[in-house]
Amino acid sequence: MSADDRSRDVPPGARPLHEHLRLLVDQMPAVLWAVDRNLVFTTSTGAGLASLGLRPGEVVGRSLWEFFSTDDPDYEPIAAHRRALAGTPVSYRLRWNDLTFLSHVEPLRDATGEIVGVVGLAQDVTELQQAHAALAASREWLLAVFHAIGDGVIATDGAGRIELMNAVAERLTGWAAADARGRPLAEVYQLLSERDGTLQPAVVDRSVDPAAPATAERHGLVRARDGREYWVSDVAAPIPGRSGRTAGIVLVVRDRTEEWAKQRAAEQVERARSLELLAGGIAHDFNNLLAQISVNAGVARRAAGADALARQLADIEDACARAMSLTKQLLRFARSDAVQRDVVDLGPLIRDHCEFAARGSSAAVAVDVAPDLWRARVDPGQMGQVLTNLVLNAIEVSPPDARVTVTARNVVVDRARGSLPPGRYVEVTVTDRGPGMPPDLAARAFEPYVSTKADGRGLGLAITRAIVVQHGGDIAVKSSPGAGSSFVVTLPAIAGADERVEESPPLKARVLMLEDEPALARAVAEFLRTEGYSVVHVADGAAAIREFDAAAARGEPFDVALLDLTVPGGMGGAAALAELRRRAPDLRAIAMTGYAADDVADHGFTMALAKPFRVDELLDAIDHTLRAVPAPASGR
């Protein structure tokens, strides 16, 4: 029976209302229908029928089985109607002619409450579903962008609880997004002051006004859940919500660890340069004076024989040597400090110096050296100083009977790390159980006159760093208050040792000496002549070249050149040697310097003689140089 048929049975007084309701139902943007207990349509109406290509009442008298062309009782619309006949309302989605309908069916009861059929309502939700799909796709795209951002991003709700975190934020905090979701931001992300390591105010407390701009950029240290530390900057902005309220905040965290390390390294280099100039200048002048005293005392001692005067002159030489050890402390700051490097098995060196440092202490020093530890080219004395200094520091800051650990491992750097290029390295770590250091002190631990101990002078670690850097390595500290400190020394590893070839020297050699200090030059020349050498002295590099050319023209070439590296206002030894090597590629040369010198091999020198030197050292240096294979020209 259609709605038109039923309208004839309505009493005349009720017909206006009935007509009004019929118009409303017919024009409703949906599909309404009813079936009897045999699932045969008794009613179909609603403006939504047009989208199905049907007219009101067109399907009346047809069964659902016929309408859907199925005999499957589990087909969803059929199953839903059968459940409604059993008294259970059912909602389901129906795809029809590329359209999606949200359908709902209810039991249809007569006046006595008996179920006589099913009544249903279906609404076309195709556009709504497409909008939802587009929204989901947009959300997926935004999430992909969110996780691809190179900075850490954390979003919270209005109460400051975390809603979203990207992958970078997970790394910086050490929290997985799933674990952090719902937790207070202040629990997951804590920014420590770079000055004293104290906790900075929670960013949520600073971004509650939705109209407020982003907070000022902050800088500090973040300690991740896994213990790793990162230097970061962050900025937070409120997320405006409804009714003028804040829906949450978005926090952007940038990892500046590598940038910070480079900046600190540059600052340390700049500070070191200033000290290098001061230290090198003082040491140069002082060593020149000491060299004059030492050489003259040595000449006089050899002439005095074995009497008391000879012993007193030897004491003068010893005093000069001790004074030189003081200038070496200044010269440790010079980047070009000349060191006598040999290929060294670091294992025994580490064990010996750790044992020495631990003597007389109640602290236990545990040494763990990898059995296959690579060798390194180092100055054993200087590297021993580094190890002793670090272990003594560790013992001093650790509680009585505490354990200090020293480990040595092989490491491979795949890509540039700070000042270290890719390559093979030996990494030595000294770990104490002391009070640790706040971030600002740890960052400046290697600066001169910055002490990590209450009674320290602030030079030990600065000298240690200078030695390590001179060896092409790096040193870093990992520390936090209450957790002790670890000092990590990284040194370039090598495959094997150099081989040396010796040859017999001439019995007595001709020496070309470049020295701008007249008193020192006179003392050295007179001494060498007494030892049977022929010596020509000049005061600058240009004169050395002229004398060399003149001697060669006479057929009396020089066998060895003894060249002062630094000549104020004139050509120094390095530049002079470059010119001399163009004339005689096999010329043997010794660098004399009041500085700790450049790496003399780079300039083509066979070895260096640091002022002040004993006359015995001078003879040994000349003998060694005459026996050695000439150093190759540097091409400078």
Quickly count the helices: 18
Average pLDDT, all residues: 81
CATH uppermost class of the largest domain:
Alpha Beta
Q: Fraction of residues in helices?
A: 25-40%
Number of strands: 23
Q: Order of strands across the widest beta sheet?
A: 7-6-11-10-9-8
Strand-residue proportion: 15-25%
The CATH homologous superfamily of the largest domain is named: Histidine kinase-like ATPase, C-terminal domain
Secondary-structure-based class equals: alpha+beta
- Domain unit count: 4
CATH architecture of the largest domain: 2-Layer Sandwich
Uncertain runs with pLDDT below 50, 5 residues or more?
495-507, 631-636
Distance between the termini: 110 Å
Task: Spell out the blueprint of helices and strands.
Layout: H1 3-7, H2 15-27, E1 31-36, E2 41-45, H3 64-67, H4 76-85, E3 90-96, E4 99-109, E5 115-124, H5 126-148, E6 152-156, E7 162-165, H6 167-173, H7 177-180, H8 185-188, E8 191-193, E9 218-223, E10 229-240, E11 246-255, H9 257-304, H10 308-331, E12 342-344, H11 346-358, E13 364-369, E14 376-378, H12 380-397, E15 403-413, E16 423-431, H13 439-443, H14 460-470, E17 474-479, E18 485-492, E19 510-514, H15 518-530, E20 534-538, H16 541-553, E21 560-564, H17 573-583, E22 588-593, E23 607-610, H18 615-627
Parallel strand pairs: 13-15, 19-20, 19-21, 21-22, 22-23
Antiparallel strand pairs: 1-2, 1-5, 3-4, 4-5, 6-7, 6-11, 8-9, 9-10, 10-11, 12-14, 15-16, 16-18, 17-18
